[in-house]
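quick one, 79 residues, struct below
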Amino acid sequence: MTTIETVIQQVAQLPIAEQLQLLARLTERLRQHDTDADPTTYSWMSLRGLVSYPYVGEDAQVWVARSRQEGDRLLEQGG
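---
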């Protein structure tokens, strides 16, 4: 098993809110290190196909509400 596969398995154990937090941090880290890229070249369509089941087919408002509830729970727990 490769290092990336191990990390992905560990990330899968995190609550969705923490997975999103990790994604945001990694995105920001990559954005800071990618000084040659023109930000105007990024497109939402470039994200197409990156999200896998169970997110595909889930209503966006249901997902947002659930994610907010999970985030609120984390904050209440001191995380």
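DSSP finds three helices and no strands in the chain.
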